[in-house]
Design a protein that fits this description.
Order of helices and strands: HEHEHHEEHEEEHHEEEHHEEE
Strand order of the largest sheet: 9-8-11-12-10-13
Helix content: 25-40%
Number of helices: 9
Radius of gyration: 29 Å
CATH architecture of one domain: Alpha-Beta Complex
Strand content: 15-25%
CATH topology of one domain: Isoleucyl-tRNA Synthetase, domain 2
Number of strands: 13
CATH superfamily of one domain: Valyl/Leucyl/Isoleucyl-tRNA synthetase, editing domain
Distance between the termini: 83 Å
């Protein structure tokens, strides 16, 4: 007897329809009440379609929602289309369209994939009701509102290319020449300063229902800063003046064995402390660093010094990428 070929299209469509009807019938009694839970996933909105990572997220969300339904909770999967995916933005620019103009086309593809995988997305989702796009003003207006609230609270820090973070509202408004691009140039972006309320965030992580390993990871990401800020005096030989800088350290006892101080490349103190005999070496090093020709563990002497506040001994000051402008104002002991 000849083996009949597997007609994947007709067989799959038959059972997908049967599963969809069975799901709607089993969910009907629950639809009258309030939803007891929801999963909101950002679905891929890229011209090339979903990746394996996207499909993995879909499957995991579906498994979780099914498991919660078996426990008596009506958990739904909401969908948000990523309207700012780089692929979408590139296509929008190329065709002269707005990202949300691709919504209906992408939504049809998404629903086709969901049916093929038997994903239990919210059956009542439709454009404007259950399916959102990050390019829709009705969606991102909340992001804009939150941004302005954080900006007004002064917890946002802006970083322009090649500059160190500055608290929102304290940036110099005067026009300046664009800094030369360096190997370690920061991209223009905003940072949320969580240090003022880091302790509360840290304590509240344990109130969540996340798995223990995820709570541990979240705690490790919270920027708590425990230590003390000390003041160091900087100068150079034969100079009759000094400048003071605050330096943060979590290990105050390190001052007893302090042998050198590092400052970040491009730090404002460099010109002041560099000895005339070292100017040529310092300028050559900074040029090589900007061109990406120096390793992150390199350094150069400035000929300047800092006074150890414990014993007033002079310790040499070096320039090194190991000191970061975003940490301790670019000075490390």
């Amino acid at each position: 007897m000849a083996i009949q070929p597997y007609e994947i299209t007709s067989i799959e469509e038959k059972w997908q329809k049967a599963w969809s009807e069975a799901i709607e019938q089993s969910d009907a009694p629950q639809m009258s009440g309030d939803l007891s839970g929801s999963l909101v996933l950002q679905w891929p909105f890229a011209p090339g379609g979903p990746t394996w990572t996207d499909l993995r997220c879909m499957a995991l969300a579906d498994v979780y929602s099914r498991f919660q339904r078996l426990k008596g909770q009506d958990v739904r999967i909401g969908r948000v289309l990523d309207g700012f995916h780089e692929g979408v933005l590139g296509k929008a620019i190329e065709e002269g369209k707005l990202p949300n103009e691709f919504l209906s086309e992408d939504l049809g593809r998404l629903e086709s994939i969901e049916r093929a995988l038997a994903i239990q997305a919210d059956p009542h989702s439709s454009p404007g009701a259950g399916v959102a796009s990050t390019s829709d003003p009705a969606y991102y207006r909340f992001t804009q509102w939150l941004f302005l609230e954080l900006l007004n609270s002064r917890h946002l820090r802006s970083v322009s290319e090649g500059e160190q973070p500055a608290v929102a509202g304290e940036a110099d408004t005067e026009e300046e020449e664009a800094p030369e691009a360096s190997a370690e140039a920061e991209l223009p972006q905003w940072f949320l300063d969580i240090i003022p309320f880091a302790e509360k965030l840290f304590a509240d992580v344990d109130k969540s229902k996340w798995p223990a390993n995820l709570r541990k990871e979240q705690k490790a990401l919270i920027g708590r800063r425990r230590g003390i800020e000390i003041e160091l005096a900087f100068s150079q030989p034969f100079r009759n003046e000094c400048r003071h800088l605050g330096v943060f350290t979590s290990r105050l006892e390190a001052l007893y064995g302090l042998t050198f101080v590092l400052v970040a490349p491009g730090h404002e103190i460099i010109d002041f402390i560099t000895d005339p005999d070292y100017v040529e070496d310092v300028q050559a090093y900074q040029k090589r660093y900007k061109n990406g020709d120096e390793s992150l563990d390199s350094g150069v002497r400035t000929g300047g010094f800092a006074l150890n506040p414990i014993n007033l001994e002079k310790v040499p000051v070096l320039i090194s990428p190991l000191a970061l402008n975003a940490y301790s104002d670019g000075v490390v002991i």
